[in-house]
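Researcher: Before we compare anything, I want clean individual predictions. No alignment, no superposition, just each chain on its own. First chain goes here; please echo the sequence and then give the structure tokens.
Model: Echoing the first chain and its structure:
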Amino acid sequence: MALYETLAQHFIDDIQAQRLPAGSRLPALRTMAKQHQVSMTTATKAYDYLQQTGWIYAQPQSGYFVANQLESTSFPSLNIKSIEQRDPKRFAPLNGYNPASALFSPLGTSMISPELQPSVALQRSIKRVTQRAGKHLFQYPETQGDKGLRSALAEHFRHDNLAFSAADFVITNGCIDAVRLAIESVSKAGDTIAISSPCFSGLLDLLSALSRKVIEIPISEKGLDLDHLETLMQQGLIKASLFSTSNMNPTGMTLPVEQKQALATLAAQYKTPMIEDDVYFELSHQKQQTLPAKYWDKEGYVIWCGSFSKTLAAGLRLGWCVPGRYLTSYINQHSLTSFGVNGLIQSCMAEFINTGEYRSHVNKIRTVLNQHIHSYQQFLIKYLPTNAKISAPQGGIVLWVQIPSLNAVQLEKEANKQGIDIRSGACFSTHDFYHDCFRINCGWPLENTGDKHSTYQQLISLCDIINSLMRAET
């Protein structure tokens, strides 16, 4: 065991024995290093390890504190009958899986708050590009995307040990558009796609609109049920698979490295394309960036999709795809449904990446979002029923909450009456497995400003509604 792990275990033992109760402040890094006679590097690694494993959390300008130990959300045990081909249109909630809400509140849509967006730096990039804009910016853009942006992306991901060239990328109108093109490039109406359970509601609506059938692959605390996925591939029951693998929505789970490797291997072995929706890829809360399944894809069967919607600004509507062996059919499909993506926005984004502003921004918000997640978790532990189970994601911006006996659909309705937008578990599956679960967004800071419309007050009101519903149940 490394020295930093031994040091971390010392704190874990104290936490488990309640010698360090939840909320206790830990020694500052320099103090801890002196007390244990270790280097600052070792002390930092120990605290990083404790944060990554959920034992402690950091507060800006305040220090490190012992976290409440969360009881993990559980996943349903699917039987063979449950794992069946289904038409998502038949099982959609009344207003669809991902309905456009008539109201907006910070807890609903998965996105970061405007104050976390680098508006000034982005405006500077836009100004520089428009000042030197040539005529080409106002012509129809190249279908594959602006080469400058594709080159900037290739260089950007090279820093994350992902080796791509500009020719590998296709620029799209956001991640959902990238996924749509992938589905249309490798399947046709009536084909069956394997998805995770639970699955992002927007993907279920997309598959429904494209007339694809689905088979839901169970997720447990250990990850996807790869044995069942392989059986489906062996029997030729699916045309493709569609999975998120890092900081996935709605659970926040990241698949283990071994599973990501296995997904790439299975796709190649059975020549069954895998579409990897990796929109949260860059929002890991750990210092070491996670790798996508695409990293282990040697034969091009993994179609890697992402965007800037979750990391930067949803309104840019700018995404990308690395289609691998399906590049030609992907570009052809893109040309049928679009005359390219806004050239000016592409050039502005290339500028923003090349100046280093984008990487600096992503590194900053990863830390901030980690703090947000911990703040929301501690709040929910305090105000929700004691049997509530709250996810402990390694990245992303959402929390998945399960409260046994809760009617989450009714909760959603009651919350909407008070102007609070959340997502019930019914939005994330064609099955009725998640009736006692809901998802909330943690992209807004949780501050008690006294404003009745603040995120803090909305979360207070949401907890009041939940406790009222639970009392009515008993």
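Researcher: Okay. Second chain, same rules.
Model: Second chain and its structure:
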Amino acid sequence: MGNLLRVLLAILLPPVGVFFTVGLGGQFWLNILLTILGYIPGIVHAVWIIARQPR
């Protein structure tokens, strides 16, 4: 799945973008927590996770 599609998913539903990038690991659960605490921190974290993954 291309990074552009993951980023779009991360903007709409941040945990979904992280899930497609790293699976059900610790980063996924951290993103769910950040999204619950505030939508913007969830988006920032998701885009950061997607951007730092090797291509």
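Researcher: What stands out in the second chain?
Model: DSSP finds four helices and no strands in the chain. Additionally, The chain has a mean pLDDT of 92.
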